[in-house]
Fold this sequence. Notes:
Elements: E1 12-13, E2 22-23, E3 26-39, E4 42-55, E5 59-63, H1 70-77, E6 85-90, E7 93-94, H2 100-110, E8 111-114, H3 126-134, H4 143-149, H5 165-177, E9 183-187, H6 195-212, E10 215-219, E11 231-236, E12 239-245
Parallel strand pairs: 5-10, 5-11, 8-9, 9-10
Antiparallel strand pairs: 1-2, 3-4, 3-6, 6-7, 11-12
The structure holds adenosine-5'-triphosphate.
Keywords: ATP-binding, Cell inner membrane, Cell membrane, Membrane, Nucleotide-binding, Transport
Pfam family, one: ABC_tran
GO molecular function, one term: transmembrane transporter activity
Amino acid sequence: MSSATSWPAGLRGACRWCPEPVAAPPVFRAEALTKTYRTGEVEVQALRAVDFEATAGEFVVILGPSGSGKSTFLNIIGGLDTPSSGRACFMDQEITKLDDRGLTRYRRDHVGFVFQFYNLMPSLTARENVRLVTEIARRPMKAEEALEMVGLAQRIDHFPAQLSGGEQQRVAIARAIAKNPEVLLCDEPMGALDPATGVKVLEALMRVNEVTGATTLVITHNAAIQDLAHRVVRFGNGAILGVETNARRKAPSEVSW
Ligand SMILES: Nc1ncnc2c1ncn2[C@@H]1O[C@H](COP(=O)(O)OP(=O)(O)OP(=O)(O)O)[C@@H](O)[C@H]1O
């Protein structure tokens, strides 16, 4: 890994007046984000002045020990939670200024979420689970297209109970990306899966990132996954301790868990 900033291939825009490539503008920018939880007398400082930027199409892996603030950070930039201070912007919109309705609109129009647990409707097929999103999205892809992207073209009419854990998670990924979000936020997406199944889920996430260009942030406890990222962000005690750029990304099949 090198610590120098270098943007992923394809994100450098050449300006005809500039001899040097110009870096793409950030999709996300967070400045001095803090989050303090108070429960009775107990105060927990979950985030301490976090600064962060991500550009279009980046695949970012977020590592850090339990309780270091990773989920709190992801929830704030995904519009699920608000900070105690600091600001976060998506494109040219300051999301930390939005009210509840604005945050709902931001999440609905721009953000796909994938969590450790799939939360699929058991009475609906894979296709119908994805259609729950495509029916209300502004510019959706077809449910079949999203399921094909995650390698489930042959399973679209199966119910969750007829699918393995990894396949169910891939339905959840298809559901998250079917609305064509600019960003895909994943909190421990392989957390409930064995390594062989986890690799398939990772392959699906990387394919989605490549095909759709959605800026993808993945929280994981599995340090091996850092080799797949454009950039790796390390959290510790509510702060970002380091950011590294991979000179060469590995494929999921090259990573040993
Ligand atoms: N709703 C809450 N109320 C009180 N404290 C909270 C709340 N949510 C998180 N915390 C605390 O904030 C800190 C950061 O939590 P967070 O979930 O962001 O960490 P994490 O790095 O994602 O951990 P993990 O890897 O275990 O999911 C922890 O000490 C946690 O106990």
